[in-house]
């Protein structure tokens, strides 16, 4: 059982990394570049204004990180719930999955299906996240 969980976990990690690469690039390159440009210009202001100016420059990057964290946490919660549904469905008869080879295979099959269904949502999730980040950085 732990072998299938490790395999699925690696599959999820790889898919999330691949799906979120454009979003990460946008945050780590585009927004960071703007942050440094903006921060550099802050030093043309009076001493008292520099700190507030730099904080304003950092806000889009911080908000983007918060959006990314929040959305990925929601994805992880959906994934966890779907796997719990599998376990509940298979254990419905009372016997533990670990005590029944047939139930164990049924649980593994359900888990694989659930993970693959959740992975199908990643491209749409990545677009949603990028849209949120793009819209918030304009305001």
Automatic annotation (TrEMBL):
Q: Which Pfam families match?
A: DUF842 (PF05811)
Which protein family is named in the record? Belongs to the FAM136 family.
Record protein name field: Protein FAM136A
């Amino acid at each position: 059982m732990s072998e299938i969980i490790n395999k699925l976990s690696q599959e999820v990690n790889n898919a999330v990394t691949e799906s979120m690469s454009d979003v990460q690039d946008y945050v780590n390159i585009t927004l960071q570049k703007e942050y440094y440009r903006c921060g550099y210009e802050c030093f043309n202001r009076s001493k008292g204004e520099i700190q507030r100016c730099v904080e304003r420059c950092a806000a889009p990057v911080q908000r983007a990180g918060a959006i990314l964290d929040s959305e990925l946490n929601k994805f992880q919660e959906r994934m966890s719930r779907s796997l719990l549904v599998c376990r509940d469905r298979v254990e419905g008869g009372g016997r533990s999955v670990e005590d029944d080879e047939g139930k164990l295979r049924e649980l593994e099959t359900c888990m694989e299906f659930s993970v693959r269904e959740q992975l199908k949502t990643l491209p749409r999730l990545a677009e949603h996240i990028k849209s949120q980040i793009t819209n918030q950085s304009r305001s």
